[in-house]
Amino acid sequence: MKRKIRVGSRDSKLAVMQTELVMEAIRRADPEIELELITLKTTGDMILDKTLDKIGGKGLFVKELDQALMDGRIDLAVHSLKDMPMEINEELPIVACAKRGDPRDVLVLPKGAKPGSYYLVKVGSSSPRRQLQLQILYPIIHLESVRGNIMTRLKKLDDGEYSALVLAAAGLQRVGLQERIYKYFSTDEIIPAAGQGILAVQARKDLDVAFLEQVNDPTTALAATAERSFVRTLDGGCSSPIAAHAVIQDSELRLKGLYYREETQEYRIGETSGPAERAEKLGEELALRLKEELGG
Ligand SMILES: NCc1[nH]cc(CCC(=O)O)c1CC(=O)O
């Protein structure tokens, strides 16, 4: 008898494209499994007139999917890891991280803009992490918040509401709009969000997930562990400009992190490296070091 797996996803174009990528990987690993895509609207997708920090943070992008997992209406949920809260219901663990996509942030110009003629006035980004690092890169920049999914943001850009946007490369690539990318920021120019470019699969902890072994990329999972440990240790909500990016080479993990202290409006950028299996500890140690350097 064919095993049937119901895969839950937010209903944005990006979320569905990402979930289909994971479903393709599952089919490649086990063609016998029957997969059904089930999309759900999440609260975070419906409240579009407020910035995330004003509506309770990242949990609003996962609550409905968590409930559907608990109710047994879906068997898996696929998320952009960077949109998942650092604290996860232990009944609903992350059971796989697919191989990381492009982690970088990029600059996008309005359709038809002449190359080289971009202005740093009314640059759209709602991410405190991007805003802080853009101000460091371009002290004269004028930033404005922008909400909505990728397609909504691009329409606002092309309708003249912004002179440029800063978005994630992976998002544009996955919806087939990589040609809109005008400039890539290196991960040193703008340190990505923890988990940026990573697709995470969540399931009820009692589900037999052996079929996900070939979907999971252990190197990506260790990088995600270090980055999320850094943010969790700093207790970073979505309103604080915390950034973390880990790269693993020959079992050596290098982690770069940015910590911003609200009270003093100071930030620190630091790096650490060590054996990849120490990912959790490396994240914690770097976070504590930066916190101490900033006195709090
Ligand atoms: N909350 C927005 C969001 N969540 C995940 C991605 C991109 C895909 C990824 O980082 O895996 C994006 C779009 C963006 O930041 O421009």
TrEMBL record:
A molecular function GO annotation? hydroxymethylbilane synthase activity
* Top-tier EC class: transferase
Q: What is its EC number?
A: 2.5.1.61
Q: Where is the Porphobilinogen deaminase C-terminal domain?
A: 222-291
Q: Give the record's pathway.
A: Porphyrin-containing compound metabolism; protoporphyrin-IX biosynthesis; coproporphyrinogen-III from 5-aminolevulinate: step 2/4
PROSITE patterns assigned to the protein according to its UniProt record, in alphabetical order: PORPHOBILINOGEN_DEAM
Q: Where is the Porphobilinogen deaminase N-terminal domain?
A: 5-206
Question: For the modification S-(dipyrrolylmethanemethyl)cysteine, which residues carry it?
Answer: C238
Per the UniProt entry, what are the Gene Ontology biological process annotations, in alphabetical order?
Answer: protoporphyrinogen IX biosynthetic process
Highest taxon of the lineage: Bacteria
Additional remark text: The porphobilinogen subunits are added to the dipyrromethane group.
What subunit structure does UniProt give?
Monomer.
Protein name as it appears in the record: Porphobilinogen deaminase
